[in-house]
Specification:
The protein has 278 residues and is mainly alpha-helical. The chain contains 12 helices and 2 strands.
C-alpha cells in the first residue's frame, strides 16, 4: 500500500522537474538578475543595485515607445485577424465545391515558422531585388509604410488560425435555430446577431486571448524583417529586451524589462479572465 501511494508521486516527478526547469527557475533567476548590475562580460560577478534597473527601464523612452507600438500592433492585428477569420468561417460554412481543398490551402501560412515568413517577405519587399518593390516602384519597408506592412503580414499568416477556430465553432450551432428563425421571418443579419454571434462568443474570446498573447510577444517575424526599424518604428518590447541583452549586453536591465513586461501584461489579462469565468 505504501509503495502504491508513493508511486503516484514518482510518476508526476518528471513533469514537476520540467515545470520547475522551464518556468519556476527562469522566473526566480530573472528576478535575481533584475536587482543586480550584470553584463555579459561580468555575468559571473553580479553587483547588487536594488531597483536601479527598473528605474532605468521606466525612464527609458525607447521602452515606452516599444510598449506603445506593441499595444498598437497587438490591437490592430488581433482584431483584423478576428474579422477576416470570422468572415471566412461564415463563407465556408456552406456547401462549396472543393471546400476541403481550399481550406487546406488557407491553412498553409500558419504552418510556416514566423522567422521564415520574415525572410520570405524581406526578399519580396527588398528595395533592390524585391519583385513587390519593383512593381510598386517603392519599398514598403520605409517609415511611411512599414507599420501597416508588418501588421498585414501578421494578419496574412494568422487569420487562418482565427478561421479554423471559428469555422469549428459554427459547426456547433444547431441548424434548427436557423430554421426556426426563418419561420419567424428573420433575415440573414438578424440570424447572425441573435443566433450565430451569441453561440460562438466563447470561441471569439478564445481567439482574442490566444492571438492577443501571441501578438504581444511577437519577435521572430519583425526582427528578421526589419530588426525593429527603420529607426525604432517597429521595435516591439520583445525586440527591445533582446537588444538590451545581446547588443547592449546589459543582462540586468533586460531582466528588469522582461519582468515589467510580465507585470504589465498580467494585470489586464487577469481582469479579462476573471470576467470570463464569473
Amino acid at each position: 500500500m505504501i509503495i502504491r501511494k508513493s508511486t503516484k508521486y514518482y510518476l508526476i516527478l518528471p513533469l514537476f522537474a520540467i515545470f520547475f526547469g522551464l518556468m519556476i527557475f527562469p522566473t526566480v533567476f530573472g528576478w535575481y538578475l533584475s536587482f543586480n548590475e550584470v553584463f555579459l562580460s561580468t555575468f559571473n560577478k553580479p553587483v547588487f543595485n536594488g531597483i536601479k534597473n527598473y528605474i532605468n527601464v521606466l525612464s527609458d523612452r525607447m521602452f515606452a515607445k516599444s510598449l506603445i507600438f506593441t499595444f498598437k500592433f497587438t490591437l490592430l492585428a488581433t482584431l483584423t485577424e478576428l474579422i477576416i477569420g470570422l468572415g471566412l468561417a461564415i463563407l465556408f460554412n456552406r456547401k462549396i465545391k472543393g471546400k476541403r481543398f481550399f481550406i487546406s490551402l488557407l491553412l498553409l501560412p500558419m504552418m510556416v515558422a514566423p522567422a521564415l515568413i520574415g525572410v520570405m517577405y524581406r526578399l519580396l519587399l527588398n528595395e533592390f531585388i524585391g519583385p513587390v518593390s519593383y512593381y510598386l516602384g517603392k519599398s514598403l519597408l520605409v517609415s511611411q509604410y512599414v507599420i501597416p506592412t508588418v501588421i498585414i503580414i501578421d494578419v496574412l499568416q494568422w487569420s487562418p488560425f482565427a478561421f479554423l477556430i471559428l469555422y469549428a465553432a459554427l459547426q456547433t450551432v444547431p441548424e434548427e435555430h436557423y430554421e426556426a428563425a426563418s419561420i419567424e421571418g428573420a433575415g440573414g443579419t438578424q440570424k447572425f446577431w441573435y443566433i450565430t454571434l451569441p453561440q460562438i462568443r466563447p470561441f471569439i474570446i478564445i481567439v482574442l486571448l490566444i492571438r492577443g498573447i501571441d501578438s504581444f510577444k511577437t519577435f521572430d517575424m519583425i526582427n528578421v524583417l526589419t530588426s525593429g526599424g527603420p529607426g525604432s518604428m517597429t521595435t516591439t518590447v520583445s525586440i527591445y529586451i533582446y537588444k538590451l541583452a545581446f547588443q547592449s549586453a546589459n543582462i540586468g536591465k533586460s531582466a528588469a524589462a522582461s519582468l515589467l513586461l510580465l507585470l504589465i501584461f498580467s494585470l489586464p489579462l487577469t481582469l479579462v479572465l476573471r470576467k470570463i469565468y464569473r
